[in-house]
Write a structure and sequence with these properties.
7 helices; disordered N terminus; globular; about 150 residues; mainly alpha
Length: about 150
């Protein structure tokens, strides 16, 4: 077996598409974990190129509120990644009972990974468009597919 060149964006996009498929099949934990893995790759690429990622942009908007609450950027990021970290660390947890909305955590991570994918200028996949339609129907409350848009 020979080593093959790696396309990190291609692999991360495949992970994100699979995360979406699993999520839409009702497998929120697996969807959350795969979306988190893809998001990590996209965030690293954005950071390496000097660009802000989705969390940076969200933090910028939330900063006045966080400052009033005496929360740091690290606190904000920890809170945003809470569900993913709990799932990843579940095997070593001494208290196996945690209350999480896994569906919300999974779709939030998918939204974040899709946004970072967009920030990199990568083309949306059919799965991403399918998820976008699901999101607007089930979360936002708008029925039917939305028109295409360019980011």
């Amino acid at each position: 077996m020979t080593d093959q060149p790696s396309n990190r964006f291609g692999h991360a996009t495949e992970q994100l598409d699979e995360a979406i498929s699993l999520f839409l099949e009702g497998q929120s934990v697996s969807g959350l974990k795969l979306a988190g893995a893809a998001d990590e790759i996209f965030c690293k690429a954005l950071s390496d190129s000097g660009q802000q990622n989705s969390l940076d942009l969200k933090h910028e908007v939330m900063e006045p509120i966080l400052t009033m609450r005496n929360q740091t950027k690290e606190d904000f990021i920890r809170d945003e990644n809470r569900a993913l970290n709990v799932i990843k660390d579940m095997a070593s947890a001494t208290d196996p009972s945690v209350t999480l909305d896994l569906e919300e955590a999974a779709y939030s991570m998918i939204v974040r990974a899709c946004h970072n994918h967009d920030l990199l200028g990568l083309p949306r996949t059919a799965k991403m468009r399918e998820f976008q339609d699901w999101f607007y129907e089930h979360v936002v409350g708008l029925g039917g597919p939305l028109p295409e848009y360019e980011v």
